[in-house]
Amino acid sequence: MGKNNTRFLIQFAVLAIVLSAAIMVKEATSIPVCNIDTNDLEKCRPAVTGNNPPHPGPDCCAVARAANLQCLCPYKPYLSTVGIDPSRVRPLLANCGLNSPSCF
């Protein structure tokens, strides 16, 4: 495995642990990842989970507008580990009036 792959895997592991812990702990300290405070992810959870998710609300769209979406691209294959259905991201962004990065 190359040096870049190992570095990416370590970065992903840290991100997955941080996001999982923040979601599971009710009053976790918010940690910014790609300009998203981890506690704010809950504002979008309904719109990215389940078979027939509702449209995102204004609070979720505010989180999406503040996010560095391109920064999330390397983590797309792993979003499901924190309860996010990657196929729901593009519709969420479209419903918020945002363009999706090419990775979504």
UniProtKB/TrEMBL annotation:
Biological processes per GO annotation: systemic acquired resistance
MF-aspect GO terms: fatty acid binding
Record's keyword annotation contains Hydrolase: no
Domain of life: Eukaryota
Pfam families, A to Z: LTP_2
UniProt signal peptide: 1-30
CDD domains linked to this entry: nsLTP_like (cd04660)
Domain Bifunctional inhibitor/plant lipid transfer protein/seed storage helical: 17-101
Keywords linked to the UniProt accession: Signal
InterPro entries the record matches: Bifunc_inhib/LTP/seed_store (IPR016140), DIR1-like (IPR039265), NsLTP-like (IPR044741)
Keyword Protein transport: no
Name of this chain's protein: Bifunctional inhibitor/plant lipid transfer protein/seed storage helical domain
Natural source organism: Arabidopsis thaliana x Arabidopsis arenosa
